[in-house]
Batch of 3 targets.
Target 1
Amino acid sequence: MNEEKIPQTVSLAHSHLTETPPGHSSDPGVVRRRSFLKGLGIVGATLLPAGALLLSKGKAQETTSGGRLSKGDADLLRFAAWVELVESDLWTQYAELGGATKPNDGGPNTGNPAYKLALQNLDGDMPQYIADNTDDEISHHRFLNNYLQSKGASPVDLSKYAIVPPSRVSGVPQTGRLTNLRQLTVDTTWWTRLRSDNQNPDLGGSFENAVPDLAKGQHPAIPQTDAEAALNADGSIPNHLQAIASTAGFHFAFIEQGGSSLYPALAQKVTNLEVLRVLLSIGPSEAMHFQTWHDKAGNAPNITDGDLTFPNLNAGIDPNTGLTTFNGNPAADAFQTNLIMPEPTIFLDPKLGPVSILRPTSTAQGGAVASVVSFVEDGLFINPATNKNTGIVDVLMRLAEDADEARRQL
């Protein structure tokens, strides 16, 4: 697929993202690849199955006989594997500049000292946490591909799409990447979503951003040059570099909250109990990552850099409206930085009463295609040389649609 431009905002509420292609599920909440690409104006000639493009072994092998996987279970695991591969790519970039150890080999990592200092304004242990999160995502991807191959199923290989230039900061390997961390549009509605006691996205709830400016425009989360990654002459951290590090802090949580929801959504479709065990065992580690980053993001200094302001979330003011109330409650209940545990809210049926849960976990709101859409809206796949999306999106949509079509076989 040729590179195609991705609009700044692609809302799941848009009708063109919820139309149902012929022969597919009629679930109105499920976003389809064909309608998504059509809505972007880029649906084209290649609407082949994902396996035709990047999988080395035929799906005919993926049967339930001889201990092999059903097609649906293999599709679910492949989708999880690509998510982890993309996460491994972006976390490696964060670790190269801000991690305590080098990605893959675990040896000491000097990274970029100025960027590390800015990250440590969020927490003194940020370099170690970044290194550990990176190792975890790499292990997830490798395990899932190894497991697929052990069952005679095709693994995921996206190496042909690693064309995004890396940071040019000294010490960063100059190899192509799958993801772009320089033009992010970061959704921070997860902040208010987990603090609501009467709204759930699975039941139609909507939420406001904790950092409204991050959800507008395009923002860097890693420095691009040595000049951008340098301290002031007096040794202080420039506001621009701090803004880059703080953007990273909120982006860490955005990425990991997606994984927290994805695994329980995929698990609802699994047939094989061992595959269920795999998904239920990896999923909680993603939630542990998210909890860590949720806590650290709240420490971002209240600064302004150009058109990006990190508000004082402990001021008791809704940063979106300037009001002291939010949905009829004190604004502090929705934005206060130490409220990092999921507030009990409605689930399944409001008549059952509130319960503390992850959300979303429905297959409609937290499904595979919805996950791809969130990554696209984040700006992860923009090629900075063209300001257009790389061809990876169409392939990921195919993998996602296969995963969303999976059904549990009883």
Target 2
Amino acid sequence: MKSNLELPKYSIGVGDRFAHQAKAQLEACMQAEEDGLEVIPVWNKSNREHTIIGSAPASTRVAADSAAKALHWRKPYFCDADHIGLATVDRFLDPCDFFTIDVADFIGEPADQTAIDAFVSEHSELLGEVRIDGMDQPLVIQISFLKKIACKFLAAVQQASAIYQKIASHKGPGNFVTEVSMDETDSPQTPAELLIILAAAADKNIPLQTIAPKFSGRFNKGVDYVGDVSQFEREFSNDIAVIAHAVKHYGLPHNLKLSVHSGSDKFSIYPPIHRAIRKFDTGVHLKTAGTTWLEELIGLAEAGGEGLTLAKEIYEQAYAHRDELCAPYATVIDIDPAKLPDPKELAGWSYRQYIAALRHDPRSHAYNSSLRQLLHIAFKIAAKMGRRYLDLLELHEGVIARNVKENLYQRHIAPVFLGKNFLED
């Protein structure tokens, strides 16, 4: 199963909610190139984010193309229609060349029994002991388990196929990168479940280049991983081994790799990810998003004056509307209201205090993860400010761009792809 447009080995999803930081993000990838490694940027933005901001997918393409042209970037880059479904894909068809097909809502919806029976009948190789290179123990799959997992995931794979076919009918097969996302669901997929999912995707001729499963632990927005790091490392390594097995046995694209969603700031699992991709000599796609918007706030605070005033005002409004802001993100945030500073107190902070509370530095006693998570989901407030916010981004482009580049390179690209841990500096 081939795809003409191929996503290179190492790639990073770079969210840019207000479409002002593409150059700074690309400069972070250029820094990686100077250090001897190709890391390809993928500008990702969801339909929900476009709706909140009041933007259109074409704006992401314009920003990415402009940055590539200005910085003479000759390597590939992509624009990702992030977390799209049949109802939302249309507006992304022309400007995007990477599609994250989100079918998490269809997990658990029973497929047609005839389809389940046919899948089980056609995949006798999945029964019994399935030995996977790189895994210490074989997978043991009983027929009852195979039927159960087929029932749980076949409808989701069928939906992914329908969305893929719609994209392919518009853009033509081979002219875009396909990712399937199953991370926004209740329970993590085991290696055995992932293998069954990949076999079903191959049956539907979905040319997967990345897949985003749900891992154990919590991947909250903009803060570190919460969970058993050793368990994550075992899962991640086993999933890589399963993918290699599926590529070999089911003819999926040779560059198929794991995608880690809500990957921003997951500092504790970056070393395990790096060890795994080095061990298996495979790629990974790390998807970041709101971390760039937070660097805009940090840059505005650092600029002082009206920039600091606006950064404080955004917090004040976020605090006042926190229930409304938190509701859509309830499953991916853990905010302790008792740890949120009173806006009247924060109004008296210096720019250094504001930045120290917001910047994700686990070594700092001033770092406040509850404040950071609240501001992470508060971009809607800045969007409502319109030109007032955007004008300040443009006025203070230099200091903001420096923060955006340093954050993306030092805290994300370097530890994941180069194995450099900024926490040890």
Target 3
Amino acid sequence: MHYDLIIIGTGLSGLMAAKTAVDAGKKVLLVGKGMGALALFSNTIDVLGTLPARTKLAEGLSRWVQDHPEHPYGKVGVEHILGALISFSSLFTRPYAFVSQGDQNSDILTATGTFRSTYLVPNTMLSGTSLRQGEILFVGFKGFKDFYANYLAHPLNCRAITLSLSGSSHGELTATAIARLLEKDSIRKRIGEEVKKQLRGEVRVGFPALLGLNDPWAIKGDLENLIGTEVFEIPTLPPSIPGKRIFSTFRDWLLRKGVSFLMGYPVSKVVLKGKRCEGIHVSHPPVANVHTADRFILATGRFLGGGLVADEMRIHEPLFSLPVSQPSSRLDWFGRSFFDDHPIHYAGVVTDSSLRPVDERGERILENVWIAGSMLSHHHLIKEKSREGIEISTGYMAAKEALKT
């Protein structure tokens, strides 16, 4: 089958590119092995967490773009970054919405007991951006080893309790299993009643961000009615239930709009003719299907997603064999200490201003292929706290540019 656009990669950048293309009325195929980094890291939407306090996002981004023209944001531009964030947020209308405070970053409590700066926060977590010592009761669950309520409570001079979901203290529970259990009325009622008994004047109750996969706002409201006080979610360690909610929301919306999904099988080969890509092979053993399109977006992520692969000597882009900007020697990939600014973080595919890949001389390699997401070069998304912002804005921009041709 032939498509207007084939997107390789089903992480946040690929999903955002698909939404942008569908909004323009295009026929889209989305191909990927899974949901990318969404299931691991995305609890909130980081855009640029290093901005000074009380800096408006547009103002801070304008300065950043001027100072970092080779950064993905420098190629996307402030106007498109803000447009991409608006487009993303349009999928998350109430009851479950992503919001900012005063159009600037806010500091949110994390599962490690620290605060981190982020831009868009699910409204189920909003109370976690304005905490006062002694006013919160933190709730953990027996058998869940990725959230320690006491660890959070101590530095805030608060109390913590650990409850059983299954009626037994034996056995481990996963984040997904807890989220599904909390969707059951009987378990939620028992938890709510037990928390209410444990209150000692606290005005808020903090749970790990596991309040269901499908309707966290309703579960939050139900618990608030049962407990009689405000409830909020706290971002957890990987895996991320909020990230799974983002993926599910995108997937359901895109399917309703007619997007075709091929999930679970990677692209095994691309069909090239000169400077154009004509199709992709997707392997469904023992059969390999060929899908063709006018345009292609590559959004396969970095090392975790397989978009970049490292061997003993070099870093490679495995699908199109695109050149990767990187240190000249593997010896230069890392600094001397753990906390150094390791050069490997800046490795990635170099593009022109329209996000099409270029070679070492700056000449365009492929005419109908665009690059999006974390596999782009010249950024350090961990240090910058910019992961989701880069993925959302470049997915949006790549689709916009592709549809111009």
